[in-house]
Amino acid sequence: MVRNLGEQASVLNQFISEIRDAVIQQDSLRFRFNMERMGAIFAYEISRQLEYESREITTPLGVAEVPVLKEYPVLATILRAGLPVHKGMLNVFDRSENAFVSAYRKHSKDGRFDIQVEYVSCPDLTGRILILSDPMLATGASLVLSYKALLAKGIPRHTHIVTLIASTQGVEYIKRNLSADNVTLWVGAIDDELTAQAYIVPGLGDAGDLAYGNKI
């Protein structure tokens, strides 16, 4: 169920090092671009799990048989932090339909927070392959709630969840709350610590703020 690409020797780890680096993070353009490049890498890895069919392609000099995708997955993300990863995946799966979920932490005065899902824009997911991306998997609660909100638009045949950095607690939450039969979790790195405010340590900070600026 869990595929940790960071355990492999690849350029993905270079990009992970850069999105973690507090100095490099000061360049928001580079931060977004690194997340976008990582999204493309995850898309390529997931593409190896999809179904293909042979098609005859006419070239200027003849005809070649090439295996092509039987169907494009639906790409979904959670606003706003997930947008750069989503763009990287859309660069690869350029004919995919798209889905967006507006979810956020609603904090109370005692320091606790609830997850609020306010809006879902989504095509019919019935029998489709769904890829749901969110750059950080902290507690896992917002991702599970977003996924369940998407299920109102149909039950996918299989769902691939993509996150750049996860906490051990978040990974275990996904395992407990989502079916292992039709969900695969793809991660770039897994960190052990989670603060009382549900931030991953060492993590990288707030991905949405680093990509798009501080919010109030």
Description:
The chain is of the alpha/beta class and 216 residues long. The chain is built from six helices and twelve strands. The strands form three sheets. Strands 1, 4, 5, 6, 7, 8, 9 and 10 form an eight-stranded mixed beta sheet that branches. The protein has a two-stranded antiparallel ribbon with strand order 2-3. The longest helix has 20 residues.
Euclidean distance between termini CA atoms? 37 Å
Structural class by helix and strand composition: alpha/beta
Portion in beta strands: 25-35%
Radius of gyration: 18 Å
Q: Share of helix among residues? A: 25-40%
Helix-strand string: EHHEEEHEEEEHEHEEEH
What is the approximate shape? Answer: globular
Low-confidence segments: none
For the biggest sheet, the summary is: 8 strands, mixed
Q: Tally the beta strands.
A: 12
Number of helices: 6
* Mean pLDDT rating: 93
